[in-house]
Amino acid sequence: MRHQQLRHVRWPEFEKSLLSDAIITITARILLNH
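Below the sequence we write its predicted structure tokens.
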């Protein structure tokens, strides 16, 4: 993803992408811990 595209993305959608990335990271950590 290019940085220029991020500027045109709506904040709600941008926050959703950050939230989804956080969920994936947390899920990966939980799976690795087990």
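The radius of gyration is 13 Å.
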